[in-house]
Amino acid sequence: MPKKKSWLTRFLKWRYKHISNRTFVHVMSVVVGFLAGIVSVTLKNITYFIEFALEGGIVFSQNQLYFVLPIVGLTLVYLYVKYIHKKPLQHAVSSIIFSLSKKGGLLKVKSIYTPLIAAPLTVGFGGSVGLLGPAVKSGSALSSNLSRLFHIDTKTRSLLVACASAGAISSIFQSPIAAIIFAVEVFTLDLTMLSMLPLLLASISGVLTSYFFLGNEALFSFSLSEGFQLRDTFFYILLGVGTAFASIYFTKMYFSILEFFKRFKSPKYKLLVGGIAIGIMLYAIPPLYGEGFGFINNLLDGDHLKALGKTPFDDYTNNIWVVIALLFGITIFKAIAMTTTFAAGGAGGIFIPTMVMGSALGNVLAKVINNLGLGFGVSESNFTLIGMAGLIAGVIHAPLTAIFLIAEITGGYQLFVPLMITASISYLITKNALDYTIYTKELAKIGAVLTHNKDQMVLGLMEIDDVIEKNFKPIHPEMSLGQMLHESVSKSKRNIFPVLNEEQKLMGIIVLDDIRQFMFDTELYDSLFVKNLMHAPPEHIFCDSDSMKEVMQKFQDSGAWNLPVIREGKYVGFISKSKLLTAYRRKLINYTR
User: Fold this and answer.
1) Which of 165, 310, 339, 469 is deepest in the core (most CB within 10 A)?
2) How many CB atoms lie within 10 A of CB 7?
């Protein structure tokens, strides 16, 4: 251990002397992108190995009993979480946003390897989630801990965490531009040259790593046979509206199912109920099994029967309207299957299930248009692609990511105009209907949402505990005026005195101005009591629920210079406006420099 510390110390000293901070950040962004790419490749290979083993050697798949496999995978994840991880799994991207907002980009070491274990077990055994979120989480945790090892400052560490996410996405989708835009839209980075170049280097590093290990094989087998036709504009607008409503449904269903599973206190019951529910859905709708890339590719190839697989409704699939109904069923049930997998204890991401749902909805709309008998004809493969973009734009509020991702992974840049139409409409409608995404709704409750608004961002980075002052002399409501003057006022440097009962609950306050006229009237020392003089503060600050934005608003509305702070019903101190503004100014300087 001493040798290791000595080596690191010597390296850091050499670095400070010979390498500028900017150059070191650029080097680190390349390293981080490479590591994130390795993580993504490893994650995919482990998952594919499990899927191959189950398809090739397990009796379940040969007897069409594969729908029981998800509960096996969920059980393995449950055992890992209970006996090794020992803490509930967190949503990957949400936990990264929370880390950037409240912890300076610090992520635990176990966040590096836990996604590499839990996600392949979930997805490999058929859980209806994606691998992108776990890849981003693992790569970001690697970047965070590497930054801490090299004593990198908080702001740069947060940038390198975003670089890791760009590297992971670039590696999985082989789409370096979309990866950069994702980091900017989801992690709300300022798009300046200081952030742009590291993101670009990390993204290139990630995609080159993917090419090296996996070759140039495209994620989706698609060749553009029909470009944008002006006559189809109305239908793309219609698709934008449809994907917007699907995005709203997707988000609301996600939180509704999670809320339902909260009724089960034991993880065992969640696993049992969730596993059975997933098994039933997989039996009726096999394409819900696993990530769903095969389903998307089959739709792009125009083979909807292969996409649907073997279902209980095979005898009726010669009727196109039955096919449309089944594909629409996938649109509806993908969100349910995905969320149920999460609620039952599985690990994964929402990004790829969003794409699956969008591809099904786009294909459904195209089939309806083509089979209504009104003489219209549109490209089903194009609508399949653009439906994915619409769902991504709506569900995660990232329209530019959606546009560039679909354009890059398919080479379909000729579809830029319809991609822009559908994605922008979906985003605008969804943004007006839902203030927050699946990633950010829970974070918004604790004021941990990242935003491009600098004022809100800085307030979000601040912690209430950092500005609480506790050097106030408390007094008791039964104290006489004389006791208060001798025991508290004479010994305090503050002009406010919190009135507390025996349970340390705030009953009121007394300001020095309230007693100034009585202070030298000794006849009142024994006849006047604190309870007769105290009054309610103009406002209270609640540690358990108030965000820093709400705290600032309370100071503005009340006009007060000091407000009491309450935690779990008990008084803990005061926050002064002067200290709050000083802390805000310091945080703003650190954030913008």
Assistant:
1) 165
2) 10
